[in-house]
Amino acid sequence: MAAVEASPTSTSQSVEFARIVAFTDGVFAIAITLLVLNFDVPEVPGAGEAQVDRYVETLTGDVLAYFLTFAVVGRLWLVHHRLFSTLRAFDSRLMVLNLAYLSMIALIPFPAELVGDYGDQRLPVMIYASVLGAAASLNWLMVRHAVRASLVDPQHRAATAAWGGRASAFIPGVFLLSIPVALASPLAAELMWTGLVLARIARGWADRRKVAR
């Protein structure tokens, strides 16, 4: 499968590569923006403070789903951005994987709303885990393919290969493993996702402290 060089010396190839990146960023931006639309504020004429308080209390699930999903989508975008910044070429297989990946990213607001409204039920939790697990898996596959097909700039190959290693399979693994867990306990599955995000944040802080030293 022939690779297309994403070289700045070729105007048409540079424009094609820029369009791919712009399209991808656009899908991410729309998906993240749609997450906030899950907060539906009803217009109730003459609503008292007690009614408003009750409504705000019902938003707890939506708020948690929003921040959790925002953190995961942000992480997926960051890895995707890093990958494409190291590419020296791209091929049709990478583009197919990227489109499949974006189809999952665009779908995320739907299961996020399901979990926000019905997070105590098994099916919404399983759908959420399936979509996020599929997105994370496709992201991992893109990195693996880019490295194996020599699409990555040689000077970045080692670092990029680490993103597609076994350790990077941990994120999709957690989401996919949470699917059968949700059959027994939706809460346990949700705690697995929360633990994943908190662990990633803690790791980021630890890495920054090492760099600072």
Beta-strand share of residues: under 5%
- In helices, the fraction of residues equals over 70%
Tally of DSSP helical segments: 9
Radius of gyration: 20 Å
Question: Structural class, judged by helices and strands?
Answer: mainly alpha
How is the largest sheet built, in terms of strand order? Answer: 1-2
Low-confidence stretches: 4-9
The major beta sheet can be summarized as: 2 strands, antiparallel
Task: Provide key terms for this protein.
213 residues; mainly alpha; two-stranded antiparallel sheet; 9 helices; 77% helix
Walk me through this protein's architecture.
With 213 residues, the chain is an all-alpha fold. It has nine helices and two strands, in the order βαααβαααααα. The protein has a two-stranded antiparallel sheet with strand order 1-2. The longest helix is centred in the middle third of the chain and has 27 residues, at 60-86. It starts with a strand and ends with a helix.
Chart the SSEs and their pairings.
Layout: E1 3-5, H1 11-35, H2 49-58, H3 60-86, E2 89-91, H4 92-107, H5 109-118, H6 122-148, H7 157-163, H8 170-184, H9 186-212
Antiparallel strand pairs: 1-2
Helix pairs in contact: 1-3, 1-4, 1-5, 3-5, 3-6, 4-6, 5-6, 6-7, 6-8, 8-9
What's a concise summary of this model?
The chain has helices at 11-35, 49-58, 60-86, 92-107, 109-118, 122-148, 157-163, 170-184, 186-212; strands at residues 3-5, 89-91. It is mainly alpha-helical and 213 residues long.
